[in-house]
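Problem 3 from the worked examples.
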Amino acid sequence: MGNNKEGFFWPTQEQELLLNAALLQGEKAITSWKSWGAAVNFDQLDAGSQRLLPLLYKNLTDHNINHPAINVYKGFYRMTWYKNRLLSHRLVSVLRLLDSNGIPVLLLKGAALVPLYYKNWALRPMSDFDLLVPHKDALKTVNLLCNSGWRPTAQMIDESDLVTKHAGTLIDDSGIEFDLHWKIMHESGRYEDDYNFLDGTGNINFENISVSVLSHTDQLFHILIHGTRWNEIAPLRWVPDSMMILREAGDSIDWDRLVNEARRRCLAVPLKKALLYLHETFAAPIPAETILSLKKMKPSLTERMEFLIHSNSRNFLRDIFYLWFTHVRTSNVNGSLSLVLRFPSFLRRFWKVPQENNLAFFLILKLAKRSGMTKTNNLHIQSNL
């Protein structure tokens, strides 16, 4: 996938070399590191690649490499530890607040991955932390947090968000952010879709607090689906995240469950592409029968279209299609005509456009913003996606 097309989430050839250098062992890791160093201008290194430098530092020092660049990588390693410890300290205060109010919490993404698989706060950069609370407790949680120094980064989270979105971002006065989830991921659609995941959760000790985490299988599923989306910052972390899960808990992965969950959720395309990429590029230890099952998958046209929208860069038309697929997943109606007729209502709820305001005019403003015709910054769809 090294010859990736513009706008897609696949690593470039240079990023693939860096991933090899950070993840592999022996001569191939060293050769990849040297080739990567010769191919990039380090002073202009993209943010996605910078996130891999702590892991690169650890791997090179494990190989006893002595080079001036090692000290530079070490700086990223130390800074990652420092920032992550700030985040984890703030996370503990949130966990205690919710626990004292009887709200169960499930850790997601980096906050779960580091203690479970990386086992070193310096190796995996985190820009925020992610928590899931029960759907019925989401608004209560928001109120508790807002009374404890947090505030939403966008509009106040309300009932409409619980249907049209899967999470909302909150920030404190120090600038620390976290994503409060009421559904595990965007593709969950309705919160009932997560029941399979929640049935298999376990517990870990996080800074002397018992907190729930996904099973190893569901953890891998979540990382693969979340990682295979386009992002302005190259979403490279899904590769080391997945490889760490497989290294630390590969024997515990229920591969049949993984494949069946993808079929159930109509997410065969991203799962298939991601796992085959890991297997072919990084020799990920995936059973032969699972590889065969993946290759036999025949996703529907709708699934392929949805994946194309999620994995490609944004423009106004793709944003509308993105929201259409969100509407389809969250809707409780059947039939194409009913979905089409209810789509304007979904858009109004998603963007919180008052009933007295003209939705068509609002869409024109959004299109104008996309085209650079206005100077306002508060209408950009990405702030609400």
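Problem 4, a separate protein:
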Amino acid sequence: MTYEPTKLSRSRIKRLRGMEHPKYHLRLDPYRVFYDVSGQSVVVLAIVPKNKTEKWLETYGVETP
């Protein structure tokens, strides 16, 4: 993530479809790291246990209009 935070991979980095914010999540079992990229900076929004990700996205995520 240091060099290519937006490079998608099958196993670890995913772009969240239909989401304005956050745009990405990184899988670090048993956690998910939700983040956005602003210029050359990675903005970590939350580190959430896997079993609470759906609830976190419902509460804090912003869907694309």
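Solution to problem 4. The mean pLDDT is 91. The first strand starts at residue 13 and ends at 15.
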